[in-house]
Amino acid sequence: MRIRSSLAILIGMALTGSIGLLLLLLGCALPPFSNWWPMFVVCFYVIAPFPLAIARRLTNTDVFSSESNHIAYEVGYFVSAFIVVSAFGFTTLLGHKGIIEPLAALCVSIGNLLMFITIYSYFIFFRGDEDDWEFSTLY
Q1: Which residues contact 29 (CB under 8 A, 6 or more apart)?
Q2: pTM score
Q3: Which of 3-17, 44-58, 67-81 comes out lowest in average pLDDT?
Q4: How many CA atoms lie less than 13 Å away from 95 in the CB half-sphere?
Q5: Does residue 134 surpass a pLDDT of 70?
């Protein structure tokens, strides 16, 4: 039962990430838009999980051991949130300045939302070690 739920979550995350990337590519490649500046948001996709991964590595496995664990997670969430807001701000800036069409900016923003939901859900559902692909519940 537990393997099925983990598999279903992985399939759902793969589907969500694929749709997000498809929307990003459509926002760049469709003939009315034909502008590849929004592809720079892929850099934000790559660096967004780093603060959370570093915070996970710096903390102990026991959640209730000390206050420093919570501080590391909070700093990781703050920096990751800053990166996510920067990705949306970059897309909005490109749309506001007329570099990309408003419909392309909307398409890329929806793709951003789906990609960041996928990244965040990975950190929520898979809290085990790297070798331990165990499904974990929220605490």
Answers
A1: 36
A2: 0.80
A3: 67-81
A4: 17
A5: no
Angle at 121 between CA 117 and CA 126, to 5 degrees: 160
Which position has the token pair 């948001």? 41
Residues 6-41: pLDDT tens digits? 888 889 999 999 999 999 999 999 988 889 999 999
Tokens 């999980």 appear where? Answer: 49
Long-range contacts of range 84-92, CB-CB < 8 Å, 24 or more positions apart?
84/44, 84/48, 84/112, 84/116, 86/44, 87/41, 87/44, 87/45, 87/48, 87/112, 87/116, 88/112, 90/40, 90/41, 90/44, 91/38, 91/41
Distance from C-alpha of 136 to C-alpha of 139, rounded to nearest angstrom: 9
